Amino acid sequence: MAEAFEPITTQEAFDAAVADRLAPYADYDDLKAQNADLNARIQTYETDALKSRIAHEVGLPFEMSSRLNGSTEADIRKDAQSLLKLLKPKNPPAPSRGDPDPSGGSKRDALRTFTNQLMNND
What ranges in the chain are assigned the alpha helix state H? Predict the structure, then answer.
């Protein structure tokens, strides 16, 4: 015959009754903590990759990507563009001695023009 039903009246009796069912989930809190750590790492890697991509698209050096701030792509892009404005030179650099004529001609054309100007001034 079947045993008679006996109601659970104490916490200890309840814990004993469900202990076998809860045994496979004993490490749930540890797994939950590990999962949170892994998700935080993934988020960091994804944010770093996003910063690197935006820095490349905007034209910032790779080394500057770690200095970008923001939690969304739009915020990071806005920060990258403001940083780029600070890095761009206000005046274009002067051509070096070895560069061709700034007007677009060759060295030979520039020398010819210079010589003609010297000869016409006499």
Answer: 11-22, 28-58, 73-87, 107-120
CA within 13 Å, CB half, 89: 4
Distance of CA 18 to the CA centre of its chain: 48
Write the CB contacts of 76 (distance below 8 Å, at least 6 apart in sequence): 50, 51, 54, 68, 69, 70
Query: pLDDT tens digits for 3-16?
Result: 888 899 999 999 99
Is this structure's pTM higher than 0.70? Answer: no
Cα distances from 81 to residues 59, 65, 88, in angstroms, run 9, 12, 11
**Which SS3 state, helix, strand or coil, does residue 111 take?**
helix
